[in-house]
């Protein structure tokens, strides 16, 4: 199981994402409303920080860990595709995703991004 | 017993009085037994005696989905030493899986037992990646929902996820509130099977 937090365009943890020590494995783009958005007053919203996502019927800009989790699922998919079906164990796929992530926030594993922001190019060159 | 009365226009000068006896309210429950691998002997009698009717068996998870009109169903069931956890079943509203592997979740929404079944089906069918994005488990974060009645649902998911992991599936679970679904980055991967389950709302 890979537990994913949602990051923003500025490599920040989004205001809506869960986090916690030992709870997050990696962070992936989830999109948010930008650095000036106040989730309490719901002011300062900038939609250019949302995440372009494919949705049933086309594409749309959204924010959510529902944007972040499938990006990590997709990365798991291309890693498995690279090595061939049933060649890697789940733990190996997870290890590649974690080890190839861009370390953000505190060095190493931290409570907001786990091992960091997923990096598909790094993962496929791992 | 509840009664409801209403008048219906029958014609210009006639009125039909109709008295309806309200049907007892039926609720769906999840009952998880202590043995995770199978349903224990006597489980059906236990549930029947408590006023429940089994609507789905999750044998591999040691759990069942039960419908009951008995308001004290949970109380009765929890007294049994066969039962680890029992609670009201939540309903979430996932979109249909959109990738190669199609598990026919109810188009209008799905009970958690159905999601658990989808996970098991995917695992048995050698699916490679499962993306689970079910919206927020409000009941984790809101003390009002953190009751023992809700925990059975979560335990059922945990068992299903562990089952999938043991089968070698990459299972991704996101935890946070927000819904909407993404995304077909992997849809072109013909050799890889992906099950995608996403929620439109955290709770029904």
Textual characterization of the structure:
The complex is a heterodimer of chains A (126) and B (204). Chain A is globular. The mean pLDDT of chain A is 89. With 126 residues, chain A is an alpha+beta fold. In chain A, α1 packs across α2. With 204 residues, chain B is an alpha+beta fold. Chain B folds into two domains: 62 residues, Peptidase S8 propeptide/proteinase inhibitor I9 (Alpha-Beta Plaits); 109 residues, no CATH class. Helices cover 24% and strands 31% of the residues of chain B. In chain B, the strands form four sheets. In chain B, strands 4-5-3-6 form a four-stranded antiparallel β-sheet, with helices on both faces. In chain B, strands 8-12-10-11 form a four-stranded mixed β-sheet, with helices on one face. In chain B, α3 packs parallel to α5. β1 of chain A pairs parallel with β11 of chain B, so a sheet runs across the interface.
Offer a concise description of the structure.
The complex is a heterodimer of chains A (126) and B (204). Chain A has three helices and four strands, in the order ββββααα.
CATH superfamily annotation of chain A: Peptidase S8/S53 domain
CATH topology call of chain A:
Rossmann fold
- Tell me the β content of chain B: 25-35%
Order of helices and strands of chain A: EEEEHHH
Alpha-carbon Rg of chain A, integer? 15 Å
């Amino acid at each position: 199981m890979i537990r994913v937090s949602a990051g923003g365009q500025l490599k920040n943890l989004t205001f809506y994402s869960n986090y916690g020590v030992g709870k997050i494995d990696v962070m992936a783009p989830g999109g948010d409303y930008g650095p000036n958005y106040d989730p309490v007053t719901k002011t300062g919203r900038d939609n250019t920080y949302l995440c372009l996502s494919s949705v049933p019927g086309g594409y749309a800009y959204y924010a959510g860990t529902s944007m972040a989790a499938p990006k990590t699922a997709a990365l798991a998919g291309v890693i498995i595709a690279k090595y061939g079906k049933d060649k890697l164990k789940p733990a190996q796929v997870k290890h590649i995703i974690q080890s190839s992530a861009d370390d953000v926030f505190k060095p190493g594993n931290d409570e907001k991004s786990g091992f960091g922001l997923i990096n598909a190019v790094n993962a496929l060159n791992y | 017993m509840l009664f409801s009365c209403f008048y219906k226009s029958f014609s210009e000068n006639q009125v039909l009085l109709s008295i309806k006896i309200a049907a007892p309210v039926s609720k769906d429950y999840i009952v998880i037994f202590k043995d995770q691998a199978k349903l224990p002997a006597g489980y059906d009698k236990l549930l029947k005696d408590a006023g429940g009717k089994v609507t789905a068996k999750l044998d591999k998870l040691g759990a069942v989905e039960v419908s009951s009109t008995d308001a004290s169903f949970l109380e009765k069931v929890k007294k049994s030493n066969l039962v680890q956890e029992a609670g009201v079943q939540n309903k979430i509203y996932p979109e249909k899986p959109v990738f190669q592997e199609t598990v026919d979740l109810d188009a209008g929404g799905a009970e958690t037992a159905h999601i658990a079944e989808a996970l098991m089906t995917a695992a048995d069918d050698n699916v490679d990646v499962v993306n689970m994005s079910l919206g927020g488990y409000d009941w984790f974060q809101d003390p009002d929902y953190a009751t023992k009645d809700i925990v059975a649902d979560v335990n059922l998911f945990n068992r299903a996820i562990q089952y999938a992991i043991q089968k070698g599936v990459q299972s991704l679970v996101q935890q946070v509130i927000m819904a909407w679904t993404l995304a077909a980055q992997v849809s072109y991967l013909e050799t890889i099977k992906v099950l995608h389950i996403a929620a439109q709302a955290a709770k029904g």
